[in-house]
């Protein structure tokens, strides 16, 4: 067990026993939240993203049961939920958070895995709805706990596990998320970013110099809704642009295959909004590739500049920013020691991610927090994160 976790583990064990008297967990499953460093709305265009698993995790302590019942308890919502293991499990109407657990159990069973009953205690440090993917951390941590309690020697292939968790979220939590969140949570490595090719879901670990660079997340507290209409409209415009490009360039199967000059050559066939949307995606893919190169050369300053350009493109061409996230990004850009900042995730609120010199982080936090409060009358939550090993088991027996 890592010493750094010992006090948290002790607390989880204490709380576990209160919820499940007389039981003792066999292990704790940990899965990270994740931060999207660059690559906005490139995932559904089969493009590239650079993200990282972070040291804010969802912890699931697990003990065996003799029956085929899964008992869940979430410390955050202070609520329990039970269900019998069956591949025909329906989503629950009265307990939305528990659907992440019901979903992964049903999907694992549908995949042919044999699961046994378990008592599961969930304690998460990943804030909900801050763009750090508390949902993926929850699914991955639960799925791994359910597998590990049933078949301790079995290690599922990471991509398959990510797909199962994504499917669970799509169909049980009614969220049309892509594969990025789960993949990064599972495949993240300490002090590395994850370069993800969303076409074949292949990943590459890129060294991330945490000693010289802090990741900062500023939650605007404006709620984003991935299921909202604007997200769907962006996807539609991308498909429209791709269809026009494909007629002229049959090799363009997704916007990931198109270049700026290809797009310019069909400009007269696209309305200005569709052109702008496609232009963002094509530019963003190029920025992610450049950012990957910068990271492999440990050029954080260049990575930061690309993040800032990414924000401008998201704001002007893709139009997924809002007054609050623009304000946050602009404030951060002006701070000494900030390498760059951009809106992350679906947009229309949510969080802004920044890279900064570690010594400057405290100052930046204070300055930006004050400016935000003065302008919007509400504080922004600020988190410091470090790229971390995505998942692990802490054996307790
Ligand atoms: P995020 O960007 O944080 O992933 P989502 O809307 O995708 O936001 O997922 C948040 C949802 O995940 C919550 O509303 C809740 O249903 C579920 N969730 C996440 N963490 C927990 C937790 N610790 N306990 C219970 N439910 C959780
Ligand atoms: Mg989510």
Structure description:
The chain is α+β, with helices and mostly antiparallel strands and about 400 residues long. The chain folds into two domains: about 5-210 and about 390-395, 2-Layer Sandwich (Ribosomal Protein S5, domain 2); about 215-385, Alpha-Beta Plaits (2-Layer Sandwich), CATH 3.30.70. Helices cover about 40% and strands about 20% of the residues. It contains eleven helices and twelve strands. The chain has helices at about 5-20, 100-110, 135-150, 160-170, 180-185, 230-250, 260-265, 270-295, 300-315, 325-335, 360-375, and strands at about 25-40, 50-65, 70-75, 80-85, 120-125, 190-195, 200-205, 215-220, 340-345, 350-355, 380-385, 390-395. Strands 1, 2, 3, 4, 5, 6, 7 and 12 form an eight-stranded mixed beta sheet that branches. A four-stranded antiparallel beta sheet has the order 9-10-8-11. A hairpin with a 4-residue loop joins strand 3 (about 70-75) and strand 4. Helix 3 packs across helix 4 (about 160-170), helix 3 crosses helix 5 and helix 6 (about 230-250) crosses helix 8. The model has no long low-confidence stretch (mean pLDDT about 95). The structure holds adenosine-5'-diphosphate and magnesium ion. Adenosine-5'-diphosphate binds next to strand 5 and helix 3.
